[in-house]
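Form 12-C: Joint structure prediction
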Amino acid sequence: MNGTADPVAPPTRYRLAPGPEAPAEVPRAEAGSEAAWIEPVLRANAVWFCQLRWLVVAVLLAVAVAGLVPALPTALGLRIQPLWPALTAGVLAALNLAFVRRSRPAGGPGTRGSIRAVLWAQIVSDLVILTAVVYWVGPDWPAAPFMYLFHIILACLVFSPGQSLAVLGLAAGLYGLSLGAVSRGWLPASTLRLEGTGSAGLPHPGQAGAGLVPMLLVWGVIWYLVSRLAATLRRRELELAETNRRLAASSEERAQHMLQTTHQLKAPFAAIHAMTQVLLAGYAGELPPAAREVAGKMADRCLALSRQIQEMLQLANLRSRAQTAPPGRPLDLAGVVREVLGRLEPAARQRRIRFHATLEPAPVQAAPDHLTMLVDNLVVNAVTYSHEGGVVEVTCTPEPGPAGGARLTVRDHGIGIAPEKLPRIFDDYYRTEEAVAHNRASTGLGLAIVRQVARATGATIEVESAPGRGSTFTVIFPGTPPAAGSAPNLSAAQPQTHHGLPADR
Amino acid sequence: MAYLLIVDDDADFANAVATVCRAMGHETQIVSTPGETLPRVAERQPDAVILDVMFPEDPAAGFQVARELRRQAPDLPILMLTAVNQQFPLGFSNRDIDPKWLPVTDFVEKPVDFGVLQTRIERLLAGTRGEAAP
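Section 2 - Result
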């Protein structure tokens, strides 16, 4: 480390919270077609209507209960027959139960048509029940017919302008029918007021019709405004979805191109490396010492480049959405750490660096290869940036509490990282000047890979570092979701503390 | 002395591998396309096949060749040389690169350290199954 060690200054902590793993899934819709994305929107709306309907059921039940305590409505000058609202609430609740069941995502083709049918059934039944409520409330509550507006507006949001106009027509028809039926005496007049209007106050059929006209005008204007706004919104939403799809496709194409390119690079380097080994082994005749040295350097540089290409491939693969992500499964983090430490121990020993591992069985949910990559890169980093003869401490513990999870800590006592550089260490190809001075061969991709894997597994990374005193990387893995499968079979129940060598070596 | 069949489209790499195998005292034959492999094996059964994965016309041709070899000669040892492994599933399905399923006896990742390659070939010929063994 070129930086000066300050024994007093506290180490700086940096936290990398799990971010979005990839852009939101974009439906692969054909340009201009709303078929692919409209179905989930309709379904979400159907579910939302069901939730709203429970509120209405609750209000009707509350009114029914108020009707059971006559003093309460009487104080307000009202007279409530509890049977009506209770009956309506019951019918509405029964219908809503059916709608809830039909609104669940069924999957498979053909569900789009059925979800539209469910929405139509919801709106029509709501309008019929609303008409009954409006009739029961009576003409003393002039605001009641405005409740039809809720359905007209919702229809504008969900259906095409033509279909929402049909809903308006249906609402007008039902409301007109109820007014007409009362004024013509087909139905007894109903009111909530204590001193009701009774039949004496019945409006003349002509009057009822005249009252309906301004109401229809208001409904019409609102339908026009909302349906126009909704159509604009729908168009924008479609354009956005299409743009998003193109962006994701372009990003995917770039990632695939990078994968292909880096892979194409790897094959020739494998050949060059093979041929330098043929030279070095003397299969092509004995080489003079100077030529041997040159061939040795060529082989070393080939290996370094191959490693870099390998890391680029790892990163590109992790970021490529088209790749089938390897399935996450319950794993024992301690087992993975033990395997990595065992593999890296000979290289660490060359630099007289010892591992001090405390590994407790800790369940995590991850893809095995990805988890190995994460642990591998953290331990390689710790070894790389330690001083010769140093110690790398690795601990792995289960997280306390019912949620579960695991915590991995990799601590070195090496060059450390300056506080202002901490936020950048997970960027692609970023290397601090101190890191380059310590080890020229590192690629600057290791921590980018760690970040990518952490994102994919929902893990959080914390880094504590002080220049000249070393760094501590802590990865906190979330608990295994209960539905994800059974817990991993953890063999060792007792924590194992190792000085020097990992357990299996 | 064993007879080894090397299947790799990269002539330089295949020749380097053949040089090492010959230095070990084995006889070698190089095949540069996956389609030639089965007829050559039918002509004269090798003691082991050293097989690349990616070929120009099909990036996963090596897996297909390995499956066909398994059907034709179930006991023939196959050492797969690959520039990919489980961490780089370039265009392969997870099933292709699952070591438990991989239809080969052993695999070595490119770039190959010839010391490692010699050990693996010796192990292969001695009948010891490697990492890819179920």
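Section 3 - Comments
The longest strand of chain B covers residues 3-7. The radius of gyration of chain B is 13 Å.
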